[in-house]
Design a protein that fits this description.
single chain, about 290 residues, about 45% helix, hydrolase activity, hydrolase, Epox_hydrolase-like, AB_hydrolase_1, AB_hydrolase_fold
Length: about 290
């Protein structure tokens, strides 16, 4: 099967699944074994905005499913913090599609959710790939620059503040084209989208990150040690949201863990280092496989 950027459009791959909590929106392309892609958080984000450029490549090998978490994209809104709603929604999604164990790729928040899925529902994850988003920074101050700029945007959602946040997400700001920024601005400035992202990022979020207590750290360590799936942890060397030293704990604590670092790369490795990301992740997913 051949998938091209031209043939895989937003509307052409758009799907919806009804669950007990509401409709989950997702994109689907390709044949073969299933692969689940989970997006990050932030203003205007969705599964499509994170992975639209990667979908054609993954769809050549997998039935690729790109989920919108509750509170993001076109999935149902949630009264609670979207982070708390995400993991149950992924389980509902897998159940709704009748899927068992699948490889999961997660960026940022999606990596955190994927790690928790692997730890607490080990029968649902055959391989785990994360793009930032897990572990804990050991040497850099907390909260990091990217999260501070995100909260500033949420508190005063102007286009300039959105651009400032987007610039903190990448190493090379040249990829932030006018079209890219405008696409994010259109979705990020919608009242419903702002309301949902404010539940996740606010002054309380910053305070919690400044004063991370022992119980929070213990929970994170326990989660990492429970992950039994083969795991590839990837980071951008220049990540200003989850700094590179965040990789040290998962690299040590996840029993079957490998680490790949992309140079000249920020938090969006799947966008900023697209070709390297795709070749690295595909090689890992297809290892010992006939897919």
């Amino acid at each position: 099967m051949t998938a091209t950027v031209q043939s895989l459009t937003h509307d052409g791959t758009s799907r919806s699944l009804t669950t007990p909590k509401g409709d989950l929106h997702y994109h689907e392309a390709g044949d073969g074994p299933p692969l689940l892609l989970l997006h990050g958080s932030g203003p205007g984000v969705s599964g499509w905005s994170n992975y639209q450029g990667n979908l054609p490549v993954f769809a050549q090998h997998f039935r690729t499913l790109v989920l919108d978490f509750p509170g993001f994209g076109k999935s149902y809104s949630c009264e609670q913090n979207p982070m708390l709603a995400a993991l149950p929604a992924v389980v509902d999604f897998l159940d709704g599609l009748g899927l068992g164990s699948v490889p999961v790729v997660g960026n940022s928040m999606g990596g955190n959710v994927a790690a928790n899925l692997a730890a607490h529902h080990p029968d649902r994850v055959s391989r785990l790939v994360t793009i930032g988003g897990i572990g804990m920074s050991l040497y850099n101050p907390s909260p990091p620059e990217g999260i501070k700029l995100l909260v500033q945007f949420v508190e005063d959602p102007t286009r300039d503040r959105l651009v400032a946040w987007m610039e903190s997400m990448v190493h090379d700001t040249a990829i932030l084209t006018d079209e890219f920024v405008e696409s994010r601005w259109r979705t990020a400035s919608e009242p419903a989208a702002l309301e949902d992202v404010r539940k996740l990022f606010n002054a309380g979020t910053l305070e919690a990150m400044r004063n991370r207590d022992g119980a929070t750290v213990a929970t994170m360590v326990t989660t990492l040690t429970k992950i039994q799936a083969p795991t590839l942890v990837t980071f951008g060397r220049d990540d200003r949201v989850t700094p590179l030293d965040s990789s040290l704990l998962p690299m040590r604590l996840i029993p079957r863990c490998e680490l790949h670092v992309f140079p000249h790369c920020g938090h969006w490795a799947m966008i900023e280092r697209k070709d390297e990301f795709e070749s690295t992740v595909l090689a890992y997913l297809l290892r010992d496989s006939t897919a």
